[in-house]
Amino acid sequence: MAVAAAHLDGHAAVRERYNDVDPVYKEVRDLRLTGFVLFLLSDCILFASFIFAYVYSRDAAPIWPPFLNGHQLPWFDTSFAAVNSVILFGSGVTMHFALENWKHLNKQKFYMWLVATIVLGLGFLGGQAHEWTGVFATGLTWNNSTMGASFFLLTGLHGFHVLVGTIFLTILGLQAASGVYTGSKYFGLTAGTLYWHFVDVIWVALFSLFYLW
Amino acid sequence: MVGAVIVGSTAFVQLKNDWGSRGIDAIVTKILLGLMALGCVLAFLAAINVLGAH
């Protein structure tokens, strides 16, 4: 397959390899892809329901941030969140590079960008742990106000997704190293990349809601 | 701030490179890359205190 596409350059060669598979695999791949996108959409609905609850609660509150034990709770730390957001968005870019390098048969660069993605993902989780520690220090917990409940639920759910994503990407890296994927059959890597982008985009919504609104 | 510019512009360039690609994965990737670039713009605006300065 790689030989057949050897005369082509760049994206044309990638497209040639991608389509140069047996029809049964192609059909299964397309169905899996549709299924995976539907899974991401269902995850979107999960987040959307909790986001709606937060927006509704906040809109219904007479004053925001709410008062707790006689004093008004502080706003969340936007500067730190902005840095942490860039770390996560950066990991989305490195994951995109990883997949592109796999498609172009640059395996060494694929591993390099994949490891960078995992490291940045773990860095984001470390940042979130720091953020949670700071928020706890203000007296806000998940059971003493709607602000705390929404913040810890949504950022916790998102953090769980990031953690699962780093495990997912680690497994994909190990699978790639053991020869599971080829230049034309790499559905798992595509799914991993879509999942990681999805996790990034959910953070755009959470960052806007908790830190910018 | 610098990170937001680098990551955002890289995401935008990748989006531009992938603009012509087809298939459901390409469509979803383009949407997600676009939203990620938007996220970088928001992070940049937050870093310069245009957004989120309560």
Q: Write down the overall mean pLDDT of chain B.
A: 80
Q: What is the count of helical runs of chain B?
A: 2
Q: Can you tell me the residue ranges of chain A where pLDDT is under 50 for at least 5 consecutive residues?
A: 1-7
CATH-defined fold name of chain A? Four Helix Bundle (Hemerythrin (Met), subunit A)
How much of the sequence of chain B is in beta strands? under 5%
Characterize the quaternary organization of these chains.
Answer: heterodimer
Could you spell the SSE succession of chain B in H and E letters? HH
| End-to-end separation of chain B | 19 Å
Radius of gyration of chain A (Å): 21 Å
Secondary structure: helix percent of chain A: over 70%
Record field, number of beta strands of chain B: 0
What does the largest sheet of chain A look like? 2 strands, antiparallel
Counted by DSSP, the helix tally of chain A is 6
Which class of secondary structure composition applies to the elements of chain B? mainly alpha
* Biggest interface found: A-B, 34 and 31 residues
Helix and strand pattern of chain A:
HHEEHHHH
- Return the average pLDDT of chain A rounded to an integer: 89
Residue stretches of chain B low in confidence (pLDDT < 50, at least 5 long) are none
Structurally, the number of domains of chain B stands at: 1
Radius of gyration of chain B: 13 Å
The chain-level structural class of chain A is: mainly alpha
